[in-house]
Amino acid sequence: MRGDLVRKLLARVLTTGLAVLAFLVVALTGATGWGLALAVAALAATAWERRVRPSADGLAETVLVAAGILVGYARRLDDGFDPALAATALVLLGLVLLVGPLRQAGALEIRAANLPVRTWTPLVAARLGDALLVLLAVVALAAALALPAFTALAAALLVGAGCGAVALDLARRRFRPPAGGGPVGRALRRHQPEFVLHFSAPPGSEYQVTMWLPYLERIGRPFMVVLREPELLPAVAAATRAPVVLCPTLKALDEALVPSLRVAFYVNHGAKNAHLIRFNQLTHVQLHHGDSDKAPSANPVSAIFDKIFVAGQAAIDRYARAGVEIPADKFVVVGRPQVEAIEVRREPVAASAHPTVLYTPTWTGHHADANYCSLPVAETLIRRLIDRGAAVILRAHPYTDKNPASARQLARLTELLAADRAKTGRPHLFGAAAARELTLTECVNRADALVSDVSGVISDWLYSGKPYAVTDTGADGEHFVERFPLAASGYVLRRDMSNVDQVITDLLDADPKAAQRWAARTRYLGDFPADAYAEAFLAAARRELEADWAVPAQRAVV
């Protein structure tokens, strides 16, 4: 997205510009102190760039900074040729050349959390770049204080020893792999997981996994989670007691696939899913991370899975409507277990003197045809809700800040709600209070009505039985309901907000679509007993692990 691109370009310009400037100041002027200060600033910029661009290659800039620091060090000492400083220069040159390849090699190693095994080499290798930056900063400080060169040499040799240990262990793993697999593979064989959740997605997508982890744990069988991107490991590992294994390569994936595994679950259509689907001894089950009428919810790639767990008949119809032919026996209706804690309410909203409205704008998507975001026109909606006397819970999509325009629009809505809360005392919720301190289920339970873009939030909300409105952000007009059938049992809010007052009245007063909404609830979320709603999913999952399990039959619609 544009915001990420701007940050990456700014980081690149700062890193390169400060490195060149530091070297020129030290080499061509007598301002050694200023040159060393600029060198430290360049190191800080390099560290920031690595946070923004983890794959950034700053070799040339690091060489320039190191050269500038060493030239400045020699000037500060002013003792002619210094063997210790020459040795420091050689060690630093070796480290600058070796740290990058060692980091890359370490990143290809299998890693694990929540397993009784220590994989120190990948962890140390991942920190070598930071260690080099700290070392250069230490050498710059030693130069500024005119400390003996042996001080810098000792620090350089210490970091060099760490690099040497990593290099030796990586070489041993490559050329003399341990018999019976590595420590992670051995620990997994002892754990004997029966199923695996495979996940590949950009950073920030952890919610797709964490929403399923409590229910995977309730299956009551040992399992593990396999991740393909290192940025996801800390958050996912903190959300479960099950082993979480990072497999950046196919070789690492092969080591993690222990013989006890029988089923593989997936929560999206990531391209790397194909790396695991090639193991045909497993039963491959797609769970999805939400149910909505968005185009990706009828992805033809779903056909490659052995089973597709769906929330209700509407999901099956969605594939057919999109022209995606999938055999009927691949579909299993299991409901949407994440809604089990949502409170069901049958009384009308009009009974509430001070209604609360949940507004959940989605993000702009990766492509124009998946852009259902209503933030550009949402200010009118928020103002009308405030005029109506409603309290608003504003809960935006986690990816909203990936688009600078969306981030600005969201900030404007936050300002409006904050100002009204200060003026009237209405309990508006926004920012961290709505997005992190409360779960989506808690937001749903607090609200009397929903306004949402086309997203999985509507399907979850549908379980509550409360009224909702759907924003038509495209140019579909009268065909909007044809494309997004769930909107038929809600109130469609036009993009130009020309019917916003009527929609708010329908939501909070008349609610003429109440009966239609309850029928849609069964089609989209199944018809399972409320006191054991999640059991439909748990039973279906166990059925794939044990042949004598059967999915409970749905009740007849009354």
TrEMBL record:
Task: Name the InterPro entries for this protein.
Answer: Glycerophosphate_synth, TagF_C
Taxonomy, superkingdom:
Bacteria
Transmembrane portions of the chain: 20-46, 83-102, 123-143, 149-168
Establish whether keyword Membrane is in the entry: yes
Pfam families associated with the record = Glyphos_transf (PF04464)
Sorted keywords for this record are: Membrane, Transmembrane, Transmembrane helix
Q: What is this protein called?
A: CDP-glycerol glycerophosphotransferase
| Record organism | Micromonospora chalcea
